[in-house]
Amino acid sequence: MRKEVLCFIAALSLIVLGASVAYFRARSSDRGYCEQVRKQMEVVLKEIEEVRGLTPPTRVDVKVVTRSWIEENWAIPFVKSKKDEILYEEMIYKALFLLPPDANLTQIRIDQFKATMAAAVGDAVYVTREFFDPNNEVKALEILSHEVTHIIQRHHFNLKERSTLDGEQARSAIIEGDALITAEKFVLHHFGVQLRGLNGSYSPIEEIWLFPYKYGRSFVRHLLGIGGWDEVNRALKNPPNTTEQILHLNKYLSCEGFLEVNAPSLDGEGWKRAKSDRMGEHVILTILLTSISEEKAKEAAEGWNGDNLTLYLCDNGYLLEWVILWDSYEDALEFKESFQALLEDKGNRISPEIWYCANRYVFFHVSEEKTMILISSNLTAIENSISVVENIP
Fold first, then answer.
1. Burial group, residue 295, by CB count within 10 angstroms (0-12, 13-18, 19+)
2. pLDDT tens across 285-305, in order?
């Protein structure tokens, strides 16, 4: 019996010893990882002013986190605080053919957070242990210089958030474009390596979320070609107001604006206004690209001159009202041709101006430089609202 006890104690000791060795190895590995990232941050802080021409903070903290930490501390609190807003966005994106019917935008948002490789928060850069590899020095310094650029931006410019999707996308494009080009030039400066741009095929909703990266890079590159970093700094002090200005640099340089839309209110007709927004040229382009060629979609979206989208709710469902203004009647007709082609592709015309597409009805009407769209799962709701929409001044 004593021999069996001694054997058990010996075996248990080996298990404890093995666990202790594994623990201290892991702690040592974590310390080595953190130290490696901090040294790379020191390199970025030392050299980035030479690349960007703006002084960074003297100290930027590095915080190493995990995907589970991000989910618990960022993703879950975000989706809880934005529960209604995310639900409304999901309804809008599904109605506009940007999300499939079975998509769960809340889960997509959580997964989006968990895919974070690095993020600048205050004067700290958070890196995700599962994604950030300091042994890949080129990628590591690219990421760190990108995030440090965001910190520099906050110290040197007053980049206030915008209240509309279109405005916020435009603001984000100059911010992300600056960070992408700075990181690209930092890697070229430090390693002599030229980075490649963002490539790949993406879903419609991903195209919207990636807009600041895909189009911001080329926007900033063109500004650099015009007047160097001084021109970029001027744009950061006076950011573009619309995605139209990002897509067409000449419209930003000429200060071309847009018209505010006088959209009719359906409040008091049994509907409750849940969300109102300006979607912008890029969202229109992305919608059209779900059914027609890129060339035709760009031509049809290019005449944008303002819009207002409002989501109404009632006990029987939802009603989406979208009024879009165009530069000319010809631009409105060009959009009409492309949007009707999309509706024919996705559903069937049941009256001169109404289509049934999967689980929704779509009313589409053109009046001079205006196009009016109503979308609902309830045909009666659309029919009862047509007279109000058609009388827009």
1. exposed
2. 999 999 999 999 999 999 999
Residues 187-200 as b/e (b if ≥16 CB within 10 A, e otherwise) read: beebeeeebeeeee
| Torsion from C-alpha of 138, 141, 143, 146, nearest 10 degrees | -130
Distance in angstroms between the alpha carbons of the first and the last residue of the chain: 97
CB 378 within 8 A of CB 363: no
The reply to whether CATH 3.40.1000.70 applies to domain 272-390 is yes
Among all chains, which residue has been given the structure tokens 């700290």?
124
Tens-place pLDDT, residues 245-257:
999 999 999 999 9
Express each pLDDT in 120-134 by its tens digit. 999 999 999 999 999
pTM for this model (two decimals)? 0.90
In sequence order, what DSSP letters do the residues of 116-141 get, joined into one string?
A: --EEEETTEEEEETTT--TTSHHHHH
Band (pLDDT 50/70/90 cuts) for residue 390 is low
Whole-angstrom distance, CA of residue 33 vs CA of residue 114 = 20
Contacts of 55 (CB under 8 A, 6+ apart): 49, 152
Q: How far is CA 189 from the centre of its chain?
A: 29
Q: Domain-by-domain residue ranges, the chain?
A: 34-156, 159-256, 272-390
